[in-house]
Design a protein that fits this description.
By secondary structure, this protein is α/β, with parallel strands linked by helices. The strands form 2 sheets. Strands 3-2-1-4-5-6 form a 6-stranded parallel beta sheet, with helices on both faces. β4, α4 and β5 form a beta-alpha-beta unit. The longest helix is centred in the middle third of the chain and has 13 residues. Bound molecules: adenosine-5'-diphosphate. Adenosine-5'-diphosphate (ADP) binds next to α1 and β2.
């Protein structure tokens, strides 16, 4: 169940349907509901802060409910609290600030996501060195997609001693115009290659800024 079919909720709901899941989209706004009818499994125009309405929609039976309301913080918190009262097993909620996130957790959200902050972090990293994309797995660990540093060009990963020297693991590698393949110790790095590396955050950042 995805509540709030704005940019975030809409994209999320469409992705889940594309992955073969059944998704009920709920929104207060008739235009948004109409926009997603035919795309999602079901769409309903309803106010998610209304406990009775949510019960009638069968909210407790859904595997997961996503609260994708950001702008109206009051509606977001009330919705998460209604879902928690109804005993929904997994409530995922989007927060627009740390304080909003804390309250969502207090009222019963099991997972809180911060899409704007996370996208800011990713774009920020993509502006440094030749980092193309950045994904934080844990506060201290990251996956980085980056261009091949000049000092690695012409060497195999084993000869370049990437683990020892840079503290990173090259997961996969893509030649210019080609596609990704798993990296092995014998993989030779060429100019223009794209590398996906996993490492401790500061090591991953430093590696991405080499080139
Ligand atoms: P985004 O930034 O992802 O577009 P918004 O907060 O702007 O997120 O949009 C959230 C959506 O949630 C809107 O389409 C809005 O109509 C819907 N919404 C807001 N309050 C409620 C509510 N009480 N019940 C159902 N849907 C709601």
């Amino acid at each position: 169940m995805v509540i709030g079919l704005g940019r975030f909720g809409g994209g999320l709901a469409e992705t889940l349907v594309g992955m073969g899941h059944e998704v009920l989209g709920v929104d207060l706004n008739a235009k948004n509901v109409q926009q997603f009818s035919g795309i999602l499994t079901h769409v309903v125009e309803a106010d998610s802060t209304d406990e009775q309405a949510m019960r009638q929609l069968g909210a407790p039976e859904f595997e997961t409910a996503v609260v994708a309301i950001g702008t109206d913080i009051e509606a977001s918190i009330l919705t998460a609290s209604v879902l928690a009262d109804l005993g929904v097993t997994r409530i995922v909620a989007k927060a627009v600030s740390q304080a909003h996130g804390r309250i969502l957790e207090r009222v019963g959200a099991h997972r809180v996501v911060f899409p704007e902050r996370d996208m800011g972090i990713r774009v920020g990293h993509s502006l440094a060195g030749s980092i193309l994309d950045y994904f934080e797995l844990d506060p201290g660990f990251a996956i980085v997609e980056t261009g091949a540093p000049a000092e690695l060009v012409g060497k195999t990963l084993a000869a370049a001693e990437v683990r020892k020297r840079y503290g990173i693991t090259v997961v996969c590698i893509k030649p210019a115009g080609g596609s990704f393949t798993y990296a092995t110790p014998d993989t030779v790095v060429n100019e223009g290659d794209i590398l996906v590396v996993a490492a401790e955050k500061r090591r991953a950042e430093a590696f991405g800024e080499l080139s």
